[in-house]
Amino acid sequence: MAENKITQKEINNIVWKACDSLRPVMGSGQYKDYVLTLLFVKYLSDVWKDKVEQYRLKYPDNEEMVKRQLQRERFILPEESNFDFLYQQRNEANIGEIIDIGLTALEDANRAKLAMVFRSISFNSETVFGQTKQRNAILKNLLVDFAGLDLQPSHLEGNDIIGDSYEYLISLFAGEAGKKAGEFYTPGEVSTLLAKLVDPQPSNRICDPTCGSGSLLIKVANEIDGKNYSLYGQENNGSTWALCRMNMFLHEQDSATIEWGDTINNPKLLEKDQLMKFNIVVANPPFSLDKWGADTAVADQFNRFHRGTPPKSKGDYAFISHMIETTYEDVGKVGVIVPHGVLFRSSSEGQIRKKLIDENLLEAVIGLPANLFFGTGIPAAILIFNRAKGDNKDVLFIDASKLGETVLRDKDIQHIVTTFKAFKAATPLATEKGAIVEDKYAYRATINDIIENDYNLNIPRYVDTFVEEAEVDIKATQATIVELKKQLTEVETQMENYLKELNLI
User: Fold this and answer.
1) Could you give the residue ranges of the DSSP H alpha helices within 289-430?
2) Structurally, how many domains does the chain consist of?
3) Would you say residue 299 has pLDDT above 60?
C-alpha cells in the first residue's frame, strides 16, 4: 500500500538522529563523511536485498541462477560488506576494523565505480573515534540507528528519495560546518538558478571543475528530460570527491566522470593530452583563493591564461579562465559564482576582464542577495559567458540583491530567469546608450556603456537603485516643532506645580 511507503522525511529524521552518536567526538566537517558513507552502504545493501527477493521469486529453488543474476547488478555486494552482516557484528571488540574490511571489499568488488572512494576514512581510527571502548560504543549506536532504516526500493515512496535525502543531509551538514561549507556545497536555490540560466540541452557535455559534493552538476542535469547528456567534474578534496562519487550513484548518474585533483595545477579532464571541451561549464569556485598557482601559470601547457595571469592572492580569474578555455569555441556557455570584487578590481584582473568583454564573451552579470552562502555574508554574483553571442554585444545587468533574505524563493528565481530569457530573445540595441529593462532591477548595457565605465562591471553603475527621500515640508515641520515646544513647556510647568504640592521643591 502506498501509505506504507517510506518517505524522504522519515529517512532524513533517522539519519539526522544518527548524527547524535558522532557529535560529541567530532565536528560535522568530519562526521558527515562517516554518516553519508554508512547511508550509502545501507542503501546498496537494501537494494541487494530487494534484488535477491525478486530473483528468488523468479527462479525458485535455483540459488545458482540467483547468484548469476546478482553478478549483473549495478553494484556487487560481498557478504562482509553487507550492512546486515556489519549489524550482526556490532558487539564485536574490533567492529571498527570489521567495517573498514567491509568497505575495502566493496571497493574491490566494484573497482570501476568505487576505487578509492572509501580510502580517505577509517571507522577504526582512534584519532577520530577515541580509544577502543568509546569507539565501539559509538559505532554500535550508529549501526543500531541505521538498522531502523528500510531503503529497499520496493518500500520507498519514489526513486529519487535516497538521492534527495543525501542532498538534504549534505545541506544540513553545510549549515553546521559554517565557513568551510563552501568547500563542498552550493546552496540548492543558487544551484537551481544557475542551472536554469545556462539552459542545458539534450546531448550536452556538462562540467563542474570545482564540483564539491556534486549538487550543482546534478541540478544542471535535472534541467534536461531523459539521460541524453554526459557529466564531468573535478574536486581537489579527497573526502569531498568521495561524497560526490556516492552522490552521483545515489542519483543514478553512474556514467558521470568525477576526477580527483587540483583543477588549476593538475587538470584531469583531458582528451588526447588537451583540455576536454564542454557545451556547458558551471562552478562555484573558492572565493579569491590565495596561492592558487600563479608562479607556474605563465608556463601553463594548455595556455589557459593568455589573457593575463591573475594575482597570486586572488584566483578568481584563474578559474574563470580555465572554465572559458574548456568550452566549445562556437557554442560553449559558462556560469560561474564569484565575489563582487571580480567585477571591478583593477591591475591584472582588470586587464583580463577587459579582454573577455572585448571578445564579446560576457552575457550577463547578476548580483545575488547577501547571506546566501554558508559561513559568509559576502554578497556574490553570477557571471554568464557565452561563446555564441554572435553580433549581440549587449550585456544584461540584474540587481537581485533585494530579492529574498537568506534564501532565494521560487518566485525570485523565476523573476531572474524570465528577465534573462527575455533579454536573450530581444533584438540587440542599435543605440550607443543602454536601456532600462526593469526600473531599479535590470539594465541592458551596450558595449559603449561598459567602455565609458572603464570596463568596470560594478552593478550600481548600470542599475540605478537610488530611492529618493520624500521632500520635507519645512513650514509644516517648523509648525510641528513650535507646537511640541509649547506642549513641553506646559508639561514642565505642571510637573513643577506637582513637586511644590509635595513640598519637594
Assistant:
1) 294-297, 316-325, 341-344, 347-358, 410-425
2) 3
3) yes
